[in-house]
Amino acid sequence: MRDVNRLIARRKLQDRLFSLLGMACTLVGVLTLVVLLSGLIRDGSGRLFDPAFYSSFPSARAVRAGILSPLVDSLLLALLTVLLAVPLGVAAGVYLEEYAPRNWLTTIIEINIANLAGVPSIIFGLLALGFLIYGLGMSRSLLVGAIALSCLVLPIVIVTTREALRAIPNGIREAAYALGATKWQVVQHHLLPYSLGGIATGTIIAMSRALGESAPLMTIGAVTFISFLPPAPWQSNFPFVNMQWLDSEFTAMPIQMFNWISRPQAEFTRLAAAAGVVLIAMTLSLNAAAITLRYRLRKRIKW
Length: 303
Fold this sequence. Notes:
- 74% of the residues lie in helices and 0% in strands.
- It is mainly α.
- The radius of gyration is 24 Å and the shape is globular.
- It starts with a helix and ends with a helix.
């Protein structure tokens, strides 16, 4: 009996130590983020709360420089990346998890998708440069940048979709099949609605990564200094949709920050710090939206 009590006490002690270790690791990450963010806010506070900082174009004079064009271009890149990567990634994840036969070819595809998730981002930029720009003759535009970022986040969307589908109990599939539902009806009416929270979370996290990438965009020739906005995606006459903005030159928040931080003047360093705070705020907002969306979707699901 004493040996059993000692074993239980030892196990409880191990649980407490592991909990303390996990809490310490979490605090290290949180404190690191707080220290970095507070340093950026301190350095960029002079421009961070200035409305002209958000409504002005980049300039060679630090006092007149702003983030209007890189901010708009980053948001357009994120929108295009979502439109390109999410439907393809979700469809591929559904096929691999629910339709694909379990053979050597499927195994090879799954291994390559997992490997693509760890490929350095600059490789996707080189792929877009060689295939889209040099091979197909496309211009160095918003569309090419969005395609490069879509290839970057596509493995994340596929893996997230598959994991969300695997989390659904097989009893739901079997009950639907027992009532005469087809494979597509099971996917459409049961699996996708139940896995939507996990898919949305993975998608938003992938978009957060895409927002902070600069290597693939610089590889395909994103402009480091730009003082104009892309054409509006709408027009007053028929067909009321203007697609010229897809072919526009572009920049992005990380590229503009790199341009500012490479200058010797201290004023540009403060501009880069303020832009960094905005970029972190955008990323944290996307993560907060993912958590909120997942929580609300899970509350609506009744198993």
